[in-house]
Amino acid sequence: MRIVATRKIDELGRIMLTKELRETMNWKTGDSLNLTCTKEGVLLSSPQQACILCGGSNDLLTLNEKPICRQCIQAIQHL
Question: Which GO terms describe its molecular function (predicted)?
């Protein structure tokens, strides 16, 4: 991995990500990020989308900007 930028931590414990990095990663204001501790440091990554009803990650569709899996949609249709 290569260093993209060096940033200081502010008085509230925040760091600023560069515009170029946010654009490259397609991260928008309000997006959630996973922070994972590794031997090398901290890894930032986009969370894997999951169904808002069951937490599954297979065969997702979007309804009102929320991920819902096809199995849950079928279960709702049979209620």
Answer: DNA binding
2 band by pLDDT with thresholds 50, 70 and 90: confident
Does 8 share its domain with 42? yes
Pull the structure tokens for residue 50: 């999951």
SS (H, E, C) the chain: CCCCCCCCCCCCCCCCCCHHHHHHHCCCCCCCCEEEECCCCEEEECCCCCCCCCCCCCCEEEECCEEEEHHHHHHHHCC
Q: What is the pTM of this model?
A: 0.56
Q: Are residues 41 and 21 in the same domain?
A: yes
